[in-house]
Design brief:
A 3-stranded antiparallel beta sheet has the order 2-1-8. Strands 5-7-6 form a 3-stranded antiparallel beta sheet. By secondary structure, the protein is an alpha+beta fold. It has 2 domains: 25-50 and 185-249, no CATH class; 59-105 and 112-177, no CATH class. Helices cover 42% and strands 27% of the residues.
Amino acid sequence: MDTRKQTFDVLPYRLKSARRKKRLQKKDFEKQLIQLFKKRELLWQQRINLPMVPLDEPFQRGWKRDFVFREDQLRSPLAEFYQNILLKINTVQYDYDRTFKHRKTRRKQKRVYGKRVQKLAEFTVQEWEDSRKGPNFNEAESLCFQLYEAEDKKRNTLTWKYRFIEPWRFVLRIRPHIITELKMKDPELEREIRLLDNHIEGNDLYYKMERLRGGLYAYQKWTLRRNRSYRNTLYRNAYNEYLENKITEY
């Protein structure tokens, strides 16, 4: 009979210290937050991928302003050349008022309004040199831009930008902003997103999730984006109000 004692490794069965238990709990909690973040991103992507549904009766939602080629320049031999440039540098603004004015200040219980400034798109040096996200101008189109030193009001510094040297070729056009289609709504998907957001917000997990994915700055930016979404009425709510007002008129 073999009386030799079998070797027995006791390391895997060693009791965990309190510090190790706390570290493992934190690691497991962070893994759950990452999975929660991935699930939220997946649901939001499914919402984005929903198709647009055309409306039976389009309605107007404010006004839209953009740049167009001047009529006296349409017969120019370079009209097509500058129109291609306009497609890459055009900007669009939306407003509920056709005058496109914004409140500048308030003096003695009187609101002072000023016109909103709209310019053609300008590009920083990084955007200009980026072949993937940049404007991708050809050699002839690049000659129509110049580099100048501009003020960055957000960072309170000076930066270099490229701008179009012949903006007089384009004029602003104001036209009604007509809504002809809306994003399809999936009630089941909206319910899942609402339940997930309630869970995250109720347990105050936004801060921890954003710290895991990029720091406090990303969390603050996402918070501002969330608050900004409640500032204006959604298109679907506006469309429902439009239908209700039309019914009451009859």
